[in-house]
Amino acid sequence: MASSLRLEDPSVFAGQWQATLSTENDAPEAQKLQDKPSNTCALELQANQTVGKGAECLGAWLEDSPIGWFPEPDGISITGKEGSRIVFFSRQGDGLYSSTLKSGLVVTLERATK
Asked: What is d(CA 1, CA 4) in angstroms, rounded to the nearest whole number?
């Protein structure tokens, strides 16, 4: 029997996230230890499904300005000006999502610890 994924309420994702840019071969943990500001962004997914603080930083990696976001059964989509999806982050585990960009670089979203 096929299992179906549940669509989470947007409130589950609202809050502070840490975005990390790395190559496919770099572990995100190793990138964080390198302490390069250009490799990490503090990102806020707001309750009204807009991208708050950190949108400019993430946008520099995505080649488009992130404006909004919405949950999907298997991840989180970030949308641009026209509301169309510009990047999809697939679920890797609780509070951990990743996407491989056209350039081959990997962006990891991790729920910020409170």
From this structure: 10
